[in-house]
């Protein structure tokens, strides 16, 4: 732990092993406060209507605290969730008591009955960690879908990552100010990239900071297509949840819509 004083604010620099960072479940919704969950959910429902089998059974991989699931349930879906973090699943169950939640790894999950739609929002497909696990995730999703079912997720193209680009937002919560900052980092080779994340919590002019790098799988969109196409018909859209446009082949973020053969 390090301490410093800067412009009238006292800072405490804390390693990522601190309890605040080790269990993000209590801060997950704050960290994602600027995300339009309804817009994302509505867009994927439209994609499912266009490409899918019109069924209403839905599974959300890496569901976190369940905000997307809430919107799917409210629009007539029978939705369930899967995550590796039990405290987040506990919060998801409070938010969505109608849903069933499972503590499983999305790279090797199994289901009791097949689904019509499987989603993986917020670039969480990259939590697979490496190409081998990503391939296993794709196989698991294929096995868990009905014929004509849709696997939909968003992804980032490793070769178009700007290591100097970050997103930052500030939230007031229970007398403290939280500043969340995140950005991708890719070394330029191999199948590993990182999501760099920092949290600042300021209370009465005392600021605590936590920093960490989340290991993620790095993949090009061409490589991703090669992994998907033995199992799915693949269509790639621009990363815009307000309007549906085909991917222009130059932007570094995209939405993948994959229909089970």
TrEMBL record:
Signal peptide: none
InterPro entries reported in the protein's UniProt record: Methyltransf_25, SAM-dependent_MTases_sf
EC category name: transferase
Pfam families on file: Methyltransf_25
Highest taxon, organism lineage: Bacteria
Keyword hit for Ion transport: no
CDD domains: AdoMet_MTases (cd02440)
EC code: 2.1.1.234
GO biological process, one term: methylation
GO molecular function: methyltransferase activity
Methyltransferase domain ranges (all copies): 59-149
Transferase keyword on record: yes
UniProt entry keywords in alphabetical sequence: Methyltransferase, Transferase
The protein's name in its UniProt record: dTDP-3-amino-3,4, 6-trideoxy-alpha-D-glucopyranose
Organism from which the protein derives: Grimontia marina
Gene name of this polypeptide: desVI
